[in-house]
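On clarity, I found the account of how folds are encoded harder to follow than it need be. Since the whole study asks how a given chain folds, the encoding of that fold should be made plain. For the editor and my fellow referees, an illustration may be useful. An entry of this sort, consisting of the sequence and the corresponding backbone structure tokens, reads as follows:

:::
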Amino acid sequence: MKLCVFQGTFNPIHNAHLRVGEFVRQKYCFDKIIFIPAYIPPHKKCDRNLAIHRYNMVKIAIQHNKFFEISDIEYKRGGKSYTYLTILELIKLYDIEDKINFIIGTDAFEKIESWYEADKLKKLIKFIVFIREENFDSSRYNYLKDKGYDFEFQPLTFENISSTQLREFIKNNKSISPYVPKQVEEYIKENELYKN
């Protein structure tokens, strides 16, 4: 199986996440894209009370794409959501061809060496790195190739909206409907999320 993981806080998930997932699936002919919402993100502050809501919103957002799947692997494990531990569990669960592929943005990838068990993790996955900045210089990352990281860059050709911006929109009573699936927007309203 050619497997790709899209792990993140998804706070909330939005259309750019879905487009990235579908672009990658088609370009690399992956059998499956597994969305894995982090239970407690190690590198971000996140309201723990939102954990189940973030999971539910991902589930709603991907339900109509037969190649997308959600995993509750990090919710079942509890504690901080370390990618290395998640990848080890996925290797046990799936018959994987070669390495697991992993979608990540340049903002997170530049901190990759600070991740838990990064030296072990780099042997297990290939990073598909989406460029999230202007005037990008790929040579800045050459040292990671020298250290054994397997990665390639992809331009982010979709609207570069962030979950942070969407939370601000909601706080300020601005519409988020152009940026999230309709059912996700309804879920946010019904549960009165991101109002504070």
User: Anything to note?
Assistant: The chain has one domain: 3-161.
